[in-house]
User: Which sequence fits this backbone?
């Protein structure tokens, strides 16, 4: 069976920065509160003039990943876009990106698994490559969470940001690359984090058909308590499956939700925080984009070297969570 190797990474961030000080002028909050409770200092917000739709950001990230890999768009067999904030209900962001990057030989679609979407997409891509169905698969996490944020709700609007990350996977005979993926969900708790968009409650009559504004609802405390053990347990399972010890991991790239969650996961796993890559200070929680965005920055900063074992771990709406173990080969 062939192995799926990461051969290119890319990311794209909107130009406009929204700092904690900017948010102090929008809702009753403070830089001190946001920093202490979340670790976030600023986030980026997509703007029309900068052409920063979900598909625009995803396309830019994808081009950078293809450039790094030296693989042209016509060689891409599959595009999976993990997103909870596509530009349209349909068609998929995947098909919009396919047109933008001219990957005309690919099959493209979206995958919705909250902040764990990238790890889910990695599993789909890995399986497709291992089965011999695809040679080159582009997986993209792209989000414009500012389009679904309730800017009057200080308990959620301070957490979220926009951005995109992309990874290009290629089939190779050489062992390594994606060593394993692990994904889980628990729909019993979907109402801890959800959004209504274009799906107003079932109307009692025709007169009840109205458009309601977007709502993102979150029970932060309960999510926090679910996130920590879920992430720690699935990470331990992923390492055990590969016969790896904690010290065999050179870098953990977690979903960038909140620094306190990551500190708690680090303690449970007894993997020191120095091995956790974080960039949530600059971008906030970019949902499905957060892991590929962090991976691209970590690699370009020299934090990941050829041969390193990298652990990905995620948690998000659904509830969903997941982990993956990679052996870096570029
Ligand atoms: N600025 C100032 N005060 C705020 C605030 C803000 N942005 N948001 C909430 N508060 C207030 C609350 O109103 C509350 O005030 P009260 O004590 O007078 O009622 C107080 O701060 C504490 O609120 P609480 O919700 O208990 O804070 P917390 O310590 O749990 O932190 C989160 C809130 C959201 C940061 C935290 O629960 C969290 O990180 N949860 C996980 C969320 C997450 O990452 N979700 C995505 C998963 S993928």
Assistant:
């Amino acid at each position: 069976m062939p192995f799926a190797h990461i051969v290119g990474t890319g990311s794209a961030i909107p130009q406009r920065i929204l700092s904690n000080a900017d948010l102090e002028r929008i809702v009753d909050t403070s830089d001190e509160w946001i920093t202490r409770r979340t670790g976030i200092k600023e986030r980026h917000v997509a703007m029309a003039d900068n052409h920063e739709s979900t598909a625009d950001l995803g396309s830019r990230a994808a081009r950078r990943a293809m450039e790094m890999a030296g693989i042209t768009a016509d060689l891409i067999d599959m595009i999976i876009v993990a997103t909870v904030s596509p530009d349209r209900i349909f068609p998929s962001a995947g098909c919009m990106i396919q047109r933008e990057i001219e990957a005309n030989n690919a099959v493209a679609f979206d995958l919705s698994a909250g902040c764990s979407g990238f790890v889910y997409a990695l599993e789909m891509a890995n399986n497709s490559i291992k089965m011999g169905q695809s040679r080159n698969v582009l997986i993209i996490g792209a989000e414009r969470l500012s389009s679904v944020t309730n800017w009057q709700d200080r308990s959620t609007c301070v957490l979220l940001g926009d951005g995109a990350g992309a990874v290009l996977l290629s089939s190779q005979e050489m062992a390594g690359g994606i060593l394993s993926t692990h994904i889980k969900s628990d729909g019993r708790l979907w109402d801890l984090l959800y959004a209504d968009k274009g799906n107003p409650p079932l109307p009692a009559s025709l007169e009840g058909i109205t458009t309601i504004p977007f709502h993102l609802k979150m029970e932060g405390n309960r999510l926090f308590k679910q996130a920590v053990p879920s992430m720690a347990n699935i990470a331990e399972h992923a390492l055990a499956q590969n016969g790896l010890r904690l010290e065999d991991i050179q870098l953990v790239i977690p979903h960038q939700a909140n620094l306190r969650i990551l500190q708690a996961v680090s303690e449970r796993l007894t993997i020191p925080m120095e091995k956790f890559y974080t960039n949530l200070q600059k971008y906030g929680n970019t949902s499905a984009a957060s892991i590929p965005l962090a991976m691209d920055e970590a690699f370009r900063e020299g934090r990941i070297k050829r041969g390193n074992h990298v652990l990905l771990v995620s948690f998000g709406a659904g509830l969903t969570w997941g982990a993956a173990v990679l052996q870096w080969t570029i």
User: Anything to note?
Assistant: DSSP finds ten helices and 13 strands in the chain.
